[in-house]
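F.,

This is the one I mentioned.
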């Protein structure tokens, strides 16, 4: 694992972009994100590009972005693939008050980022998730992916008694104290990572805030039946492991009340109260 030079100031919000073989979109979309944050984000931030197992030019481009945006963008490389592995690695070592992630394709509108992190910074929630399946969301995607997404979340409601509406939207954030409690217990390092994290958070009584988002599938999204089937099978195995582990006590849940320590409070009119200088 290799990392670009460290950023001297600790950020308040760290936004992780996990990538694998994303050389076509990486530079344009990270640049758009940075410009948005510079113009519209009212608190300190840092973007971390987490390259997990790319075999194209993604890592080189990530390093160039970090060098081109010192103090704003950093790049980290892991030899092994897995979105969950990338997030677990970065979040486990992070110093930010709020840890977020979003997909590099920017399928979620950037205007949803501040509503996502505000309740966390204000101390009103422990975890926040973007949802495409709740009232107020505006979604443009293929019928197959819509059906699979709704079916998967319904399966979670039935098998694991979940109450959140959208487990797999690539737009989530959590407070650092919640991350410290959850991450050591999350086993999955791939696509089921999100679901496992949310189930454990919900079982522990953490406050989960749902934020309806505007979502448009990227033109580069591969609506491959093989890819969907492979991911679905892995998720089914994850659901079975999680259900069995929770029933037998093999999978532990953070103690109730975890993740509710007082932290920074956000005031949109006066900046960050109680944050680092």
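My design for it:
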């Amino acid at each position: 694992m290799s990392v670009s030079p460290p950023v001297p100031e600790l950020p308040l919000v760290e936004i992780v972009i996990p990538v694998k073989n994303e050389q076509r979109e990486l530079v344009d979309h990270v640049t758009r994100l940075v410009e948005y944050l510079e113009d519209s984000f009212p608190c300190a931030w840092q973007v971390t590009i987490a390259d997990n197992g790319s075999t194209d030019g993604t890592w080189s481009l990530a390093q160039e972005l970090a060098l081109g945006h010192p103090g704003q963008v950093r790049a980290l490389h892991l030899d092994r693939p897995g979105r969950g592995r990338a997030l677990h690695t970065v979040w486990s070592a992070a110093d930010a008050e709020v840890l977020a992630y979003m997909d590099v394709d920017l399928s979620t509108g950037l205007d949803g980022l501040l509503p996502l992190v505000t309740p966390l910074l204000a101390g009103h929630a422990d975890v926040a998730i973007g949802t495409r399946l709740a009232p107020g969301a505006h979604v443009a995607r293929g019928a197959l992916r819509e059906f699979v997404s709704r079916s998967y979340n319904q399966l979670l409601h039935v098998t694991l008694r979940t109450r959140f509406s959208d487990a797999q939207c690539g737009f989530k954030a959590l407070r650092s104290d919640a991350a410290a409690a959850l991450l050591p217990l999350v086993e999955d390092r791939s696509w089921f990572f999100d679901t496992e994290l949310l189930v454990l958070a919900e079982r522990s009584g953490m406050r989960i805030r749902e934020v309806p988002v505007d979502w448009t599938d990227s033109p580069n999204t591969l609506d491959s039946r093989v890819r969907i089937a492979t991911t679905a099978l892995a998720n089914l195995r994850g659901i079975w492991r999680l259900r069995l582990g929770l029933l037998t006590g093999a999978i532990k849940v953070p103690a109730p009340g975890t993740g509710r320590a007082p932290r920074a409070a956000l005031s949109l009119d006066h900046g960050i109260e109680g944050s680092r200088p």
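The longest strand covers residues 45-52.

Talk soon.
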